[in-house]
Amino acid sequence: PGARPVTYSPTFSPPGLRVTKVGSRGAHFFFFPNMTAIVSDKTAERAWALLEPVLLRDGYEIVEVEYAREAGGWVLRIYVDRPGGVTIDDCQAVSRTVDPILEVEDLVEGSWHLEVSSPGLERPLRKPTDFARFAGQRARVRTHAPVETGTGPRRNWSGILKGFRDGMVEIDVDGRLHRIPHDQIAKAHLEYDFEADLRRKE
User: What H or E segment, with its residue span, contains residue 102?
Assistant: First the structure.
């Protein structure tokens, strides 16, 4: 298959929201504030395994990969990060790198779109190192099924990450430490603390 054409059209929004869009029939670049994690889709997993060593070589970390059907059709969405943050130029560079690899490998069948995004303010948390790296920050965690916590089963937690130990994500909710099996987590992401951010700026 031939390379999908790319056109550029800038848009502008308040900080923390989508700020730039590069669009075409097949390739888009977005900045999103609210992302999720822990994906089990086979196509997303295969894309991650295929692209991670290539992007690591270029200095990029894959934060998350999603493959989903949306209003405009099937979308393969890749979230990347690097020290100092990701710009629209980074998203374009990553797209130019991964697009021919995906075409040659014929990883995705039929018609689909490629999106390359920054992780945004509410960065997805997936790998054990993510939970350790962002210890001390607010996060939201949801499991596939209720998990027994000592005060009854629950599926959702919102609190301060304490780290990762022995296969468990540790999170403090209202002064109580909860330990959640990593393999039971369906989605997890940082929570943007608007009030704390305001206090830091005062």
Answer: helix 88-105
